[in-house]
Design a protein that fits this description.
Layout: H1 8-59, E1 77-81, E2 86-89, E3 93-97, H2 113-122, E4 137-145, E5 148-161, E6 165-174, H3 176-228, H4 243-292, H5 299-323, E7 331-334, H6 335-343, E8 349-353, E9 357-360, H7 362-379, E10 384-391, E11 394-401, H8 427-430, H9 435-445, E12 449-454, E13 460-467
Parallel strand pairs: 8-10
Antiparallel strand pairs: 1-2, 1-6, 3-4, 4-5, 5-6, 7-9, 10-11, 11-13, 12-13
Helix pairs in contact: 1-3, 4-5, 5-9, 6-7, 7-9
Length: 478
């Protein structure tokens, strides 16, 4: 049972059915109450007309035994005086309730006129003789006429008679029509509502099943991808423009990004292994030769290979930290001072800088400048220029050389890891191809950019743009 109602389809069907059921019950209740009120009101109107007719005859001094309203079929009538004494009642009236008096047999007429005069003295002067009180009061009750007992709506009308004082006429109208109509409506609802709820549940079940079918396809394909570990596969995309189609497209985009990330990771591991193999092999060879022939030990070469291996390991460790999304520190860094420190001790490097502060990691930003200067020194002929300036809401650091420059087609590729455009260049001169990749990753993690272009002198120009201190760095890109 819990598994059945654990699905979205089941919950949607149950929810829709419950909502419709509540709405139907509320609407049905309102309908029955309205129907009953209307029919009861109509019965009260009929009862009031009957009471008004009898009251009119009484106002016209019609004797009690001559009243035409007393012999009407299905209309129980009572006439009582101010003391609640029954003066007249309908023929064949056997039992009555709800009118204030249950008497059905009239009391004897008064013995003399003095009694009537005494009643006249007790009358309220608010009505003139022969006047009928406006409006009526209503009650519900029962009456038995000629052996048949039914429910009635009673109306009570007061009349001031010239000869008998104030009398109250109770007249009733049967509620059989009201009971019949309400019963019929209730029966129809009891039969129709379950059928309607069944239709709603069936339609909701089919519609949600059709709507969720693509989701099930996505789930099955994702399960297959997880089992096979084949990130080249993609989930089916419905030919619609709804949320499910957008989910499928987003899922495929995520799979594509994950596949690219895994491929980059594999390539990174392969390239790193390849790059590490060379200095390790060279160092091992030198140590083996030294073990056999100590006099042939190339100590400078061993130290150089060890330093190169140490630098490569440091680069790989930094890239690994950047790949994990490590956020830089929020320290204020003066790029002008940092540029002068990075240029210190380097020949042919000119620094033109104005004080500009950014927020970030001083060590990582120093590494960016060092990598850019290392790259410029490998390609410059005579001169390297470092500029630091403020441009709008960003700090811009430019590193330009007067070398051969970078062709436009390669200006993005040089930022890829382990990429060296000069294939003939030695590893010792060209490095492992990680310097520019590290520089761009650090720039991105600081909310900035690093681009390559053409320098005014004809060489390469690398521009680092970072938000000024206090500006929003945004969300680092992966």
């Amino acid at each position: 049972m819990s598994r059945l109602f654990g699905s979205v389809r089941s919950r949607a069907t149950l929810g829709a059915t419950l909502v419709v059921a509540v709405a139907l019950v509320a609407a049905g209740t309102a309908l029955l109450l309205s129907l009953r009120a209307n029919l009861t009101g109509e019965a009260g109107t009929r009862a009031e007309r009957s009471a008004q007719a009898v009251a009119s005859e009484l106002a016209a001094r019609t004797p009690l035994d001559k009243l035409s309203g007393l012999d009407a079929e299905d209309t129980p009538v009572q006439i009582v005086d101010e003391d609640g004494v029954l003066l007249a009642a309908s023929e064949d009236l056997e039992r009555i309730s709800g009118t204030g008096t249950s008497e059905v047999t009239p009391a004897p007429a008064p013995a003399d006129e003095d009694d009537r005069d005494d009643r006249d003295d007790r009358d309220d002067d608010s009505l003139d003789p022969g006047e009928i009180a406006p409006g009526a009061s209503y009650t519900n009750g029962t009456a038995t006429i000629d052996g048949d007992t039914e429910d009635y709506r009673f109306a009570a009308v007061e009349v001031e008679t010239p000869d008998r004082g104030r009398l109250t006429v109770h007249a009733g109208a049967p509620l059989a029509a009201e009971h019949s109509a309400v019963g019929t409506a209730l029966t129809a609802m009891l039969i129709g509502f379950p059928l309607l709820l069944g239709v709603v549940a069936a339609v909701t079940w089919m519609v949600t099943g059709r709507a969720l079918r693509p989701v099930e396809g996505i789930r099955r394909e994702m399960a297959a991808i997880t089992a096979s570990e084949d990130l080249r596969r993609r989930v089916p995309e419905p030919a619609t423009h709804d949320e499910v189609a957008r989910l499928a497209r987003t899922t495929n985009a995520t799979l594509a990004a994950l596949e690219a990330s895994v491929e980059r990771q594999r390539a990174f591991v392969a390239d790193a292994s390849h790059e590490l193999r060379s200095p390790i092999a060279s160092l091992r060879t030198q140590l083996e030769v030294a073990a056999a022939h100590p006099e042939l030990l190339d100590l400078d070469g061993a130290v150089e290979d060890t330093v190169r291996l140490q630098n490569l390991a440091a680069d790989l460790l930094l890239l690994a930290r950047l790949d994990t999304g490590e956020r830089p520190a929020g320290t204020r860094v003066d790029l002008a001072a940092l540029a002068r420190e990075a240029a210190a001790g380097r020949e042919a490097v000119t620094v033109e800088a104005e004080p500009v502060e950014v927020s970030g990691s001083r060590g990582q930003l120093s590494r960016v400048l060092a990598n850019l200067l290392d790259n410029a020194e490998r390609h410059a002929r005579e001169r390297i220029t470092v500029t630091v300036r403020r441009e709008g809401g960003a700090a811009v650091v430019g590193v330009a050389d007067d070398g051969e420059g970078v062709v436009e087609a390669d200006r993005e590729r040089i930022f890829e890891r382990f990429v060296r455009l000069d294939a003939a260049r030695s590893r010792d001169d060209g490095g492992a191809g990680l310097g520019l990749a590290i520089a761009r990753d650090v720039a991105v993690r600081h909310g900035g950019t690093l681009t390559a272009g053409a320098a005014p002198a004809g060489g390469a120009l690398f521009e680092l743009r970072l938000p000024l201190a206090g500006e929003d760095r945004g969300t680092p890109r992966a």
